[in-house]
């Protein structure tokens, strides 16, 4: 599928964190708390420790903190301490979060990287269970709108190999201070709705990843859309930037693209300049938290032009989970 993808960051794994540009840094936590209600966590709740409680980060949430701690600071592996507790809904894992951050060498106290707290630059981090570092385990259970300190041992942050570009030696752990300003759902969450007659049947794995059963009939000649799960969040409008999980198939049942195996959602501007017209129609007016299935005829897809493994003249099927929008 042709789309303008949004930049994102990766965890520290032998390289630096990368900042992602966002439209603004306004903290709007109320809707997330509503839409995440009832979703089970995919990682265990964070664990604290005596060492991380020695980290102080003064100042208000979403403002530049003054961070101090005794060094060298050593903990038990991975420790989290909530310094300012928000009330915007719990982090549940397997999701994308946006945060301001500051990172410090736990052995020397030196800052090696930071975003501009309160500004329009913050990082996106995908909380993938078992990743290294395992920010999913470090943040699950923390409320959106919180400021947290995280202490990571050398083994947890760089497997004891160091990261030269960040000035981290093999024996240096890391202290992070995060202000959690944004969170997206890990999957659709809301009221179940029946699909229109003749639409493919969607079968969901526990993770939320969809599979389909296609009717033994000719593909519809016209665009069709059904809301399978109706979320309670804001409506998507043309021009919005949305974060979604999606899978696409041809009417013959061949899967050609999916965000689910990558364990990271995709972000798109909902415009005909960046997406096929049928994908835009599938998202227009859908609320955050919803899952939609759309059957897209060739003239609203790729027409008679082949696209990767998609044959010319293909009718497309998309199942899309709307996880949030900026």
Automatic annotation (TrEMBL):
GO terms for molecular function: peptidyl-prolyl cis-trans isomerase activity. Its EC number is 5.2.1.8. Residues 94-184, 239-326 form the PPIase FKBP-type domain. It catalyses: [protein]-peptidylproline (omega=180) = [protein]-peptidylproline (omega=0). Keywords: Isomerase, Rotamase. InterPro entries: PPIase_dom_sf, PPIase_FKBP_dom. Gene3D superfamilies: 3.10.50.40. PANTHER family: 39 KDA FK506-BINDING NUCLEAR PROTEIN (PTHR43811:SF19), FKBP-TYPE PEPTIDYL-PROLYL CIS-TRANS ISOMERASE FKPA (PTHR43811). This is peptidylprolyl isomerase. It comes from freshwater metagenome.
């Amino acid at each position: 599928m042709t789309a303008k993808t949004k930049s994102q960051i990766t965890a520290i794994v032998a390289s630096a964190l990368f900042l992602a540009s966002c439209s603004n840094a306004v903290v709007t936590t109320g809707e997330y708390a509503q839409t995440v209600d009832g979703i089970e966590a995919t990682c265990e709740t964070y664990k604290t420790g005596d060492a991380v409680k020695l980290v102080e980060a003064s100042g208000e949430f979403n403002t530049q903190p003054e961070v101090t701690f005794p060094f060298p600071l050593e903990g038990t592996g991975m420790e989290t301490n909530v310094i300012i507790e928000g009330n915007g809904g719990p982090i549940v894992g397997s999701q994308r979060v946006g945060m301001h951050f500051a990172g410090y060498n736990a052995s020397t106290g030196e800052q090696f990287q930071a975003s501009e707290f309160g500004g329009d630059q913050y990082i996106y981090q995908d909380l993938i269970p078992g990743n290294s570092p395992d920010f999913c385990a470090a943040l699950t259970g923390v409320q959106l709108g919180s400021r947290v300190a995280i202490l990571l041992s050398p083994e947890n942050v760089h497997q004891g190999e160091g990261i030269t570009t960040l000035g981290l030696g093999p024996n240096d752990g890391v202290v992070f201070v995060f202000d959690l300003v944004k969170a997206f759902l890990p999957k659709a969450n809301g009221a179940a709705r029946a699909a229109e007659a003749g639409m493919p049947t969607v079968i969901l794995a526990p993770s939320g990843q969809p599979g389909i059963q296609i009717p033994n009939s000719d593909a519809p000649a016209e665009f069709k859309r059904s809301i399978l799960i109706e979320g309670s969040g804001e409506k998507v409008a043309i021009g919005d930037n949305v974060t979604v999980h999606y899978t696409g198939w041809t009417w013959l049942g061949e899967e050609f693209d999916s965000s689910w195996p990558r364990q990271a959602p995709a972000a798109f501007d909902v415009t005909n300049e960046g997406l096929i017209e049928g994908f835009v129609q599938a998202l227009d007016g859908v609320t955050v938290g919803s899952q939609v299935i759309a059957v897209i005829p060739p003239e609203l897809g790729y027409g008679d032009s082949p696209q990767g493994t998609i044959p010319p003249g293909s009718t497309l099927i998309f199942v899309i989970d709307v996880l949030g929008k900026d």
